[in-house]
Amino acid sequence: MSKWNAKRFHSINFILWVYFLVFAVFILLLTWVFQMALLRAFYRSEAEKDLTSIGKQVSERMTGLMLLESVADSLGEEKDRIVAEINGYIEQMQNEHPEIKIFVFDGAGGLLYPVFEGEESGGFAEGVPDNTTFLGMLDIGKEQGKDVVSVRLDDDYYAYAARVDGAAPGNAAASDARYVYISYSMLLANSAFGTMQWELILVSVIVIFVALFISALLSSRLTKPIQRITQAAQRMAKGDFTVNFKGEYSYAEMDALAETLDYAKEEIGKSDELQREVLANVTHDLKTPLTMIKAYASMIQEISGADPAKREKHTQVIIDETDRLTALINDVLNLSKIRSGMDTLKVREFDLSEVVETVLERFGYLTETQGYVIERDVARGLCTKADIEKIEQVVYNLVGNAVSYTGDDKKIAVALREEEGRIRLAVTDTGKGIAPEERETIWDRYTRSTDTHKRPVKGTGLGLSIVKTILVKHKFDFGVESEVGHGSTFYVLFPLSGRAG
Predict the structure, then answer these.
(1) Which domain holds residue 399?
(2) pLDDT (mean) for 281-292
(3) Exposed / middle / buried, residue 69 (Cβ in 10 Å: 0-12, 13-18, 19+)
(4) 331 shares its domain with 354
(5) Are 231 and 258 in contact (CB under 8 A)?
(6) Cα angle vertex 443, ends 441, 448, to 5°?
(7) What is the pLDDT of residue 343?
(8) Any idea what the CATH number is for the domain that residue 45 is in?
(9) Burial of residue 82 (number of CB atoms within 10 Å: 0-12, 13-18, 19+)
(10) Which residue, of 256, 282, 363, 400, has the fewest CB within 10 Å?
């Protein structure tokens, strides 16, 4: 079986088709079981109860009539009148219950009643059972010691027999015994069941075809938007980020999926754009120091090799540019490691105030050699729980970013204070600020904020991206407050775990 055929058997169309078909077959099986088995058994049970009730009623009445018949001569009664009364009662009962036939036999199986002559029979004497059937019922009664027997002859008939001469079984001669025999016809019911069976077959065929049609229609309605979204996703996978997943769908879940995919498309598009931007800028930042190194190496070789002062100046430039390359490569590797999850956090409690002071000391050379002013407002003994090395990198990158973007006064303010049960680190510069539309993307961009970058110190442009990645892994709150023309304040909120002595 090919891969394509295997996929077709796992498609929504095929699965829905199978489910609807199974459901339809299940419902039909239940209907068949109920109609053709349970209902038939129920009807047979009711027929037996009905026959027993009718048989008891007829037996009681016939017992009285048979006694009246046996003493008619001694009482001077007219026997013809009693016979007519017996016939009339049989006729009445058969009219009230068309499904039964009533007969009276003697012990030898001879038919005694009903007695109708000619056209007056009205069909009431039809369907007389043969002696074998009647005598067989008597044998069953003798074996069970009962004078009342109710049996099922076949699928079409039930029979009831009871002695009605008033004598106990075996106490009267066979010729004097009287038995009422009632046959109960199931022909009409069985005919109805047969019709019902054919109707169920027809309904089953119709239901199966309807189930197939509905499953095909429903699966088409379900899969059409999925196919549309799939095609759009395939286009997006090939780099086309102009696709639109949204549409007029009939299901809220599809609308939610389309919105999610549109959001993912926008984020992937941003990531793709960022990747190209990072690649272009890293390439540029690699090219610049390499060009400088080559140029100054050539100058040393051709011009300043014999001049110690110039040679030292040129070699220092080579060293500085090499440091820039090293910093750039380290930042790219650190960012990659942190985002890939390879660089796991080593959380422990430490004095955050000491870490901030230590980092600020590393920037002391700027105040001595380039005239920067770093204002400190660091509360003592504030402790937190985090990865100390990562947090030190966060503080260093934030201060370095402020140095790169501060204004002509070269002022930077660093504050560390307790606020509402947390520690707030704020690094403020006096630069041109960040436009509102850039405040969300500034953390993810390799390029510097538009037309505000001065780069007086070494940097790679990846500092804020590293800061964001580390703080997101720690699940710390952070952000930027800025106003164009009035500088920016980058802040981080750390959990307060205690105070150092």
Answers:
(1) 344-499
(2) 67
(3) buried
(4) no
(5) no
(6) 80
(7) 60
(8) 3.30.450
(9) middle
(10) 256
Cβ contacts of 304 within 8 Å, gap of 6 or more: 310, 311, 313, 314
The number of domains in the chain is 3
Q: Between residues 134 and 147, which one has the greater pLDDT?
A: 134
Helix 187-237 to helix 39-70 angle, to the nearest 10 degrees?
170
Q: Where are the alpha helices (DSSP H) in 350-442?
A: 352-362, 364-369, 388-405
Asked whether residue 58 falls in the same domain as residue 145, the answer is yes
Answer yes or no: are the C-beta atoms of 164 and 178 closer than 8 Å.
Answer: yes
Burial of 143 (0-12, 13-18, 19+ CB in 10 A): exposed
pTM (two decimals): 0.45
Structural domain includes residue 216 = no
Task: Enumerate residues 6+ apart whose C-beta is below 8 A from 156.
Answer: 185, 186, 187, 190
Nearest-angstrom CA–CA distance, 412 and 235:
48
Tokens of 380: 């003592």
Q: What angle do CA 26, 27, 31 make, to 5 degrees?
A: 115
- Tell me, yes or no, whether 287 and 400 share the same domain: no
CA trace torsion 212, 215, 221, 223 (10° rounding): -110
Instruction: Kindly tell me the burial class for residue 57, based on how many C-beta atoms sit within 10 Å of its own C-beta (0-12, 13-18, 19 or more).
Output: exposed
List the CATH number of the domain containing 430. 3.30.565.10
170 and 255 inside one domain:
no
Give per-residue pLDDT as tens, 85-97: 888 898 899 888 8
pLDDT digits (tens, 9 = 90+) for 404-423: 889 889 999 999 999 989 99
Q: Is the pLDDT of residue 390 over 80?
A: yes
Is residue 340 classed exposed, middle or buried when 0-12, 13-18 and 19+ CB atoms within 10 A define those classes?
exposed
d(CA 62, CA 171): 19
